[in-house]
Amino acid sequence: MQNGAGNAAAIDYVTFSYVTRYFPEENVGLRVLQQTIAAPGLPLITSLKLDQTQLVLLVVLMQTVLYARR
User: Fold this and answer.
1) Are 6 and 12 in contact (CB under 8 A)?
2) Longest dimension (CA), the chain
3) Residue 8 near residue 49, CB atoms below 8 Å
4) Is residue 3 a part of any domain in this protein?
5) How many independent structural domains does the chain possess?
6) What's the CA gap between 47 and 57, in Å, rounded?
7) Phi and psi for 46 in degrees, rounded to 5?
8) Is 34 helix (H, G, I), strand (E, B) or coil?
9) Neighbours of 33 (CB within 10 A)
10) 2 within domain boundaries
């Protein structure tokens, strides 16, 4: 995502924490966008290059999908 090849990714907590701790330069330009509730799941991260409108649209989309009644 740092080179613009993607807009968002789901990365497991163990991997993200490992990279953050031992290879912090790999996380430059990234941020955690959303996290799932405290249960097995993946944090959702996105590039710092996304503007506020894109972030809001992603969050609304995720909330719609995650919390939609079935």
Assistant:
1) no
2) 41
3) no
4) no
5) 1
6) 14
7) -145, 165
8) strand
9) 19
10) no
For the segment 7-57, what is each residue's pLDDT rounded down to a tens digit? Answer: 888 887 788 888 999 999 988 888 888 777 766 666 778 888 889 999 999
Helix, coil or strand: residue 31:
strand
**Domain range holding 21?**
8-67
Across the beta sheet with 44-47, the strand order is 8-10, 44-47, 30-34
Give the model confidence (pLDDT) of 43-52 as tens digits: 778 888 889 9
**Which two three-digit tokens encode residue 62?**
């995720």
Beta bridge partners of 46: 8, 31
Specify whether the CB–CB gap between 69 and 23 falls below 8 A: no
Distance of CA 58 to the CA centre of its chain: 10
Q: What is the DSSP letter of 45?
A: E
Which phi and psi angles does 29 have, rounded to 5°? Answer: 85, 5
